[in-house]
Amino acid sequence: MGSEFEAEFSVVLVEEVRADGSAVWTALHPELFGCNATGQSQEEALSNLNKSREAWLSIAQKTGVPVPTPQGEPSVTTMFSPARGANVMTSTGQELQTEVTQLAAA
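and the corresponding structure tokens:
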């Protein structure tokens, strides 16, 4: 798999701001129970989520666990920590592909 993020499943990105002001990002696929990753930036969390998804799908295939079908158009929901002013953004369709490709390319 290349470095481009594959937006087949929905993605939730959550920013957590620590007491020292640094941030950590968690990225997850809601459709794939337990498939998540963290990073110091959105880009790193998405890159790590690619690896997590590959492992999740590989294990599911080897163990016979059914892989859920993505529901509707894939979307990215980004939740920023209340410390930065509570904010939730959701993108779908072409917006999603553009946004994810930009994040993954960074």
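(Above: one complete record from the training split.) The two ends are 17 Å apart (CA to CA).
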